[in-house]
Amino acid sequence: MPTRDEAWNLLCEFTQSESLRKHALAVEACTRAYARKFGADENLWSLAGLLHDFDYERWPDPPDHPLKGSAILAERGYPADVIYAIKSHADYLPDCPRVSKLDKTLYACDELCGFITACALVRPTRLDGLDAKSVRKKMKQASFAAAVKREDITQGALDLGVELDEHIDFCIRAMQSIAPELGLVAA
Q: Coil, strand or helix: which one is 137?
């Protein structure tokens, strides 16, 4: 199995955008934390979180993303369950339903991490003190982070079998553990 350093290098090879790299780090932190909670392989789940969008900058259009990236991951020896989870995080691949806990976790964390980041960026204290209540309030504001699909956030928590507020708080805590790398520390 490729190492985390090899995965980071692959991400950087294909992704120039600092914000997309930070998104990958946020999703990695959340999937790793869930792996720990569920007693799963943290390194394996970390790879799925870190690499889920590594091909997006080059191939943003469906189904190229994530299929082009999945082919690259297969060529480079990434585990089949990581590749499948990455493919299943796309709603438009009907032959890749989310089946495993990893599949469901990656999907549940992806949009939520982007939304939490948006919430943190408009706060002077960033992630510090952010909670589910504040995030839920912003979710009701359609103009805020309008590109984030709220239904993906709620459906992700439902599919994962966790209560939405608990899921939001869990992901906030995971992201707080790497807040400096995410650029989300108090100004």
A: helix
